[in-house]
Every structure is written in C-alpha cells, then in structure tokens.
Design goal:
heterodimer, A: 352 residues, alpha/beta, D-Maltodextrin-Binding Protein, domain 2, 2 domains, three-stranded parallel beta sheet, 18% strand, globular, B: 292 residues, mainly alpha, MetI-like fold, 0% strand
Chain lengths: 352, 292
C-alpha cells in the first residue's frame, strides 16, 4: 500500500514536471549570447525555460541538416550562412516580421541583414550580435604587426597562432591584395586566389606555434606569452586586454572581417511564439547590454551602448579608428560550393 | 505416443522462443546501431548529390588525392607504432601484477591502473597539456633545476600524440594480458627452470605462447582505439598532424560534404579490418581462437 502511494506520488510529480517543462525554448547559439542572468530574467517574465546549446556556424548548419531543421526552436548562424544553407538544405523557416519589434533594432543593420537573408521574397533573419575578426597583438613583443601577412615575418617564428578555417583564408587573401568577396561568383578565380593563399600559409608554417581551434586555447596561448600574435576575434582581444594592457585587438590594415550573427527559425521549430518573445526580450537595450558584457561584442539593439561598461567602449575605440570601421569587410552570403575549395586548401596546409 | 511427441515438440518450440527472446537484444543492437547506420553510410558514399544516381567518385577522391591516402597511411602507421609501444610497456606491468605479487596488493595495483580511467579522456588530455606546454609544469621544472634556459615546448609534436595514445590505451592492453597470464599455471614456469631453461627461454617458450591470445586481442583493441581516436591527435598534435578521423569530422561538419565523409568512414572500416586481418595472418593467429 505504501509502495503504491509512493509510486502514484512519483507519477503525479513526473506529470506535473512534464507539464511545466512543456513551455521551453531550445536555443542553438554561441557561447556568451545567452548568459544565465538573461535566461533567468526571461523565465521570470514569461515563465519559459531556455535550454541553451552552444555551437558555431558549421555545427549549427550540420545539426539542422542532420535533423532537416528539427531539434531547436531558434538558431543564431552568421548572416553569410543563411541563404546558401537554405538553398542547399532547406533547414530554416521564414520569419513573421510583424511579430518582431523592429523599433528596437539599429535600422541600417536590420535593413542590411534582411536584405542579405532574403530568398524567394521571404526574410529569414534579423541581426543580433556583430563583431569582427582581425589580429590580437602583444605590443611589448610585436609592435610592428599591422596586417595578416605580417604574421609571417621571420622575426616571429614559432610565436604566432591562427585557425585553419575560412576567415584565415579570406583575411590573408585581402592582405595579399586580392578581393575574395568579389570572386565569390567566379569559382575559377576564387580557386586561383585560394591556391595562392594556401601557398602563403604553407610557407608561413614555420611561424605558427599551433593552429588553435577553440577560443580558450587561443586565449591561453596569448595570455601565457607563448605566442605574441594571433588571428582571432575582437572580443578575445578585449578580454585579454583586461588582464594585460600590452595585448589588444588590432584592426588589420587590409581591413577587419565583419560578421553579424542573426536570429533564424529552424524549419521544424516547435515553439515559434517563444522564439519571437526571446528575440524581442533580448533586443531591449538594457538586456542587450548584458549580452554585450558576457559575449564581449556589441549588439544590433538601438541605444544599448548607453548601458555598456565604459571600459569595453574604450577598448573598442582603441582598436577601431573611424577609418578602420569604414574599412571593415562585411561577409557577403557564401555561395554553395566554396567550402569544398577552401576545405581542400586547408587540408593541404595542415598535411604538408 | 502421440501425446508425448506433441509435448516434446511443444517444449522444443518453447526453447526456441526463449532463445529468440534472448537473442533479440543482440540482434536489435546489431541491426539498429551497427548494420543500419553502415548501410546508410554506404548509400551516402555511393550517391551523387548533384546528378543523382550512383557514383564511385568519392572513393576515387581518396586514391587520387595523395593528401587523403597519405593521411590514412600516417594514421595507420602511428597507430601500429602506438600499439607496439603499448604492448612493450604493458607486458611487464601485466606480468608483475599477474605473477609477481599475490593477494591484496595485486588488487590495489590493478585498481591503480584503472583509476586514471575514472575521469574522461578529455580531462586526461587537458592534464597532459598542462604538464607539457611551454609555460607548463615540466618546462618550468626544468628551468627551475637549471636544465633549460628558456621555456621548452613539449606539446604539438608527433611524440606527444604517441604519448597520449599509449597512455589512453594502456588499460585495454593490461586487462587482457593480466587475465591470460593469470591463467598460466606457475608450475609450468617452475618446470621450465627445473629443466634448465633460463629467463629468456622460459619467456619465449612458455609465457609468450600462453599469453598470445591476450596479446593479440589487446593489440587489436589498442590499434582500433588509436586509429579511431579523435581527441588526442587534435589536442596534442602539432601543425602537421592530420589524423584520419579528424578528416572525417571536417568532411561532415565543416564542409557539409556528407558523401565524402561517408566514403572515408567506410574506407576506414575496410582498411582497418584489412590491417587487423593481415596482422593475424602474419602472426599465424585466427580471430576465433583469439576471441574464444
């Protein structure tokens, strides 16, 4: 008898738990974009639990491709990875813009993202966090590194780290005087540019201490002084700058590479309403500032600058002069098929 | 007569049903987790994403592009080397545990081999990174002792990968070796000495032949674990250290090229099975004898 009551109590409990858990938002995002305090505030306000999965562009697309757009209610790929992935794999769902409070966005950025993520008349994305990648330099040891190609100077043998990923190829291509974005539509030309960059990266190999893959590995290499220069994100540079004033993010001469991470709906999202609620919630200036604080990057939320810590603003201004900002190269949408070209070049660089 | 025969067939069919029920989990496991995924993998690797229909081009890519087969060759050779090293290190350890000590301390020593495996492979690998990096424990220790003037980088080389592979595979060699050596009757060894054999004779004529099934099964496990390892080569490896599993991962995840990744996966399965088969042939062992 006692057993029975315990059992029924357990069943009742599990039922009530599952009833509560019904309202859930499964968010596929980047590290730092959904800090716990924001998640808690959102739950307080709406009663919706947010289940955060941290990822990166390639993994987001692969995950959604594997499930044909299921498993998550809201995802945050970069702006250049939306139309191509949609065309190839049909993993996203068009946004209902009437459910998004557009007055909270910086208008120029909203317009640009909408424009770049429109396919067949449907808009698939709105902007969230933006930033750039460029160089992180320890000025005490490597003051004269101003562009990606400077990483290959003989003076820095064994003191440099970067990723073997597409931003490195693109950055080096710009630094070598090419314009890879202009060649996006012309595969042969693009192949030619990438071959050239691959050769440069192979020649540069002696300078590299290790190719980093996770952001923390890069931070450790720079913080411990094992490397003096890295190719990485601006936020990483500012984080390091807090501990060591000599290290800071430097916008390369040939231009930092600008990205915008967006909000998109996976095709089989189960809780669209919660997704719109989350977008509107995190775009409020004070909440957006909390995300800037944790991710280290600024958001597309209008007026959130006023809430952001003065230190981060100062770091940002130290890294970017107005001319540097104008010189940022924003990633255009990647046409399908380029990944294969880039992939082979990167494999070769690593193998030989 | 009629009655008895019908009960006999009834009990036989009951036995059959019981056998099938017992077999069901195994069959389901084989079918759902091994056979079906591999069929899916095979069909991916043979399908042409652009035109539809069948194609062998993804397999052709492996043989035509030196990069890929060289990566496989490198991975295989390093795995064989890691297996040999593991055997050389694990054999004395296993012999000591199985034959030289008795009672409680035996259990304790065995547990000490096991304890590192209580934490995940990732944590263990990070542990090695903390020890070996330029600003790490060993490097600063050497500097403190005056043996090195500046930081010594011990990470990011093939030797580091080897260290990581041997370390993470050690247990899988020690366990089968201990169990086979345990089953060797000490009196055989004593008889060997009585008949005038020296240490080397006895090792070669008595101990190794008896331990062969353990050696072979340990080697197969360690070889397969090393070949299929992803974490260790990626985290500890250097600039030139492309591992074949890493290649498969990048094809799937960063290139969205599932067809190529599947072809590599199938090739890894076939080529590694071939290597194991060759290994068994060369050492004159049969798979059933080793596993039985």
């Amino acid at each position: 008898m006692k057993k029975l009551t315990v059992l029924s109590a357990a069943i009742a409990l599990s039922l009530s738990v599952s009833a509560q858990a019904a309202e859930e938002l499964r968010l596929l995002t980047w590290g730092g974009y959904a800090p716990q305090e924001v998640v808690d505030l959102f739950e307080q306000e709406t009663g919706i639990k947010v289940k955060v999965t941290k990822s990166n562009n390639e993994e987001m697309i692969s995950k959604l491709k594997a499930t044909r757009g299921a498993g998550f209610d809201l995802a945050q790929p970069s702006q250049d990875r939306i139309t191509s992935a949609q065309k190839a794999h049909n993993i996203y769902k068009p946004l209902d813009l009437s459910k998004i409070d557009s007055s909270q966005f910086i208008q120029s950025m909203l317009a640009a993202t909408k424009d770049q993520s429109t396919l067949g008349g449907d808009v698939y994305a709105v902007p969230h966090v933006w930033g750039s990648s460029g160089l992180i330099v320890n000025k005490a040891d490597a003051a004269d590194i101003q562009d990606y190609t400077d990483l290959c100077k003989p003076a820095y043998a064994g003191k440099v780290t970067y990723r073997l990923k597409r931003p490195t190829l693109i950055g080096f291509a710009f630094a070598m005087g090419e314009d890879p974005f202009a060649a996006y539509a012309d595969k042969d030309k693009y192949q030619q540019i990438m071959e050239k960059v691959g050769q440069k990266l192979t020649d540069c190999k002696a300078n590299v201490k290790a190719y980093w893959s996770g952001g923390d590995a890069m931070l450790n290499l720079m913080r411990s002084g094992e490397t003096t220069a890295a190719m990485a994100w601006d936020a990483g540079g500012w984080k390091l700058n807090k501990d060591n004033a000599d290290i800071n993010f430097v916008a390369p001469k040939s231009g930092a590479l600008g990205w915008i991470d967006t909000f998109v709906l996976p095709r089989k999202t189960k809780n669209e309403e919660a997704a719109y609620k989350w977008i509107n919630f995190v775009m409020q200036p004070n909440i957006a500032a909390m995300i800037t604080e944790s991710a280290g990057n600024f958001t597309a939320s209008k007026g959130s600058d006023a809430y952001v810590d003065a230190k981060l603003k100062a770091q940002y201004q130290a890294s970017f002069s107005p001319a540097d900002i104008d010189n940022i190269k924003w990633y255009p949408p990647v046409p399908a098929g380029l990944e294969k070209i880039e992939g082979k070049i990167l494999d070769r660089v690593k193998a030989y | 007569m009629l009655v008895s025969s019908s009960t006999a067939s009834g009990s036989r069919s009951r036995i059959k049903l019981g056998m099938w029920l017992l077999l069901a989990p195994l069959c389901l496991w084989l079918l759902l987790l091994i056979i079906l995924p591999h069929i899916e993998l095979l069909s991916f690797s043979l399908s042409d994403p652009d035109e539809g229909g069948l194609t062998l081009s993804f397999y052709g890519e492996f043989f035509n592009e030196p990069l890929y087969w060289r990566t496989f060759l490198r991975t295989a050779i390093m795995s064989i080397l890691a297996t040999a090293l593991t055997l050389v290190i694990a054999f004395p350890v296993a012999f000591f545990i199985a034959k030289m000590i008795k009672g409680r301390s035996k259990g304790i020593l065995f547990a000490m081999c096991l304890i590192p495996f209580w934490v995940s492979e990732l944590v263990r690998t990070f542990g090695w990174m903390i020890l070996l990096r330029e600003s790490g424990v060993i490097s600063s220790g050497l500097q403190w002792l005056g043996l090195a003037d500046s930081g010594v980088e011990l990470l990011y080389t093939d030797a580091t990968i080897m260290l990581g592979l041997v370390y993470s595979a050690m247990l899988f060699m020690v366990v089968p070796l201990v169990s086979t050596l345990d089953s060797l009757d000490d009196s055989y060894i004593e008889a060997g000495y009585d008949l005038g054999g020296n240490n080397w004779n006895i090792m070669r004529e008595i101990i190794i032949p008896h331990a062969t099934p353990g050696i072979v099964s340990g080697c197969i496990i360690v070889f397969m674990l090393s070949l299929g390892n992803y974490l260790t080569p990626v985290l500890l490896g250097g600039k030139d250290s492309l591992w074949f599993t890493e290649q498969i991962y990048t094809q799937f995840i960063t290139r969205f090229n599932w067809e190529q990744g599947s072809a590599f996966g199938i090739l890894l399965l076939l080529l590694s099975s071939l290597i194991v088969w060759l290994g068994l042939k060369v050492t004159g062992q049969s798979f059933t004898k080793t596993m039985g």
